[in-house]
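Much of what follows relies on a compact textual record of a protein's fold. With that in mind, consider the following protein and its fold in token form.
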Amino acid sequence: MTITNSVAKKPAAKPAAKKPAAKPVVSKSAKPVAKMKAEKPAPLKQYKLLTGIDDSTFCDRVCDHLKLGYELYGSPSITFNGKNNIVAQAIVLKKKHNKKKK
């Protein structure tokens, strides 16, 4: 006597289909940046102390401020926090020379 064990096999689960990447939504009413109303930039502060890790990013920040019309004020400072060199540089906004009217 042979005993057969008939077990119903379930079909193998299908792998989940990958969804296509979402496309960015662009509004048809979006205006180009050049045509948008220009906002007034925030007034520049007279004095700033820039601080950060001594790397090229810090140097770029200082250069960007020099391009905005700031000038270096005093000597730079440097310290070590146990992991990185931390630098500081004071900057001031250049004074505009007013011409005297006659």
